[in-house]
Write a structure and sequence with these properties.
By secondary structure, the chain is mostly beta strands. It has a single domain, classed as Immunoglobulin-like (Sandwich). The chain has one helix spanning 50-54; strands at 37-46, 61-73, 76-91, 97-111, 116-126, 130-139, 154-159. The strands form two sheets. It has a four-stranded antiparallel β-sheet, with no helix packed on it. Strand 3 (76-91) and strand 4 form a beta hairpin.
């Protein structure tokens, strides 16, 4: 934050933020800042690499990844969230449910508006044997961020 120029006979104002910055806390006040940030699951994907990665194809085996995006309008700084994902697998030959697994990845987000972060869920897949239904959501304390569209913090994706 840069100081605003002094007015005639006044002093430099250090409490007025520049555009895009959170308001400064005033010493002795109980004011706390809660950013207005639309946190979203932008994509659930499998790893891509090698020849398959060149064509944007999922590898036959690997781990699922999830992309978290801050749609803004504010940046988030040091925001603690968990990205929870659950995976249901179905046998390709019988279409019967085989297993259900889940994992939660704790993150501290520092994302400007419009930026995203892709993280590995730690959940394995093998596309040669199974089809998958993957569900992911961002879990956070609602007192730490004002999310104008919390519905997009949850997504379900099928992989066949």
């Amino acid at each position: 934050m840069t100081p605003n120029p002094p007015t005639s006979g006044g002093s430099t104002d250090l409490t007025t933020p520049l555009p895009g910055e959170p308001p400064a806390s005033v010493p002795g006040s109980q004011m706390s800042y809660r950013p207005n940030a639309d946190l979203a699951i932008a994509k659930i994907s499998g790893q891509t690499s090698g020849l398959g990665g060149l064509f944007g194809m999922i590898q036959l085996s690997g781990t699922f990844q999830v992309t978290v995006k801050n749609n803004g309008p504010d940046a988030v700084k040091n925001l603690k969230v968990d990205v929870w994902c659950g995976v249901n697998s179905m046998d390709k030959s019988t279409s019967s449910a085989v297993a259900s697994t889940q994992n939660s990845v704790p993150l501290v987000l520092n994302l400007a508006a419009g930026k995203s972060l892709t993280v590995d869920t730690g959940l394995q897949y093998d596309m040669t044997k199974y089809n998958y239904r993957v569900e992911c959501k961002i879990i956070y304390d609602p007192n730490t961020v004002e999310d104008p569209n919390s519905l997009n913090a949850h997504q379900i994706q099928a992989f066949k």
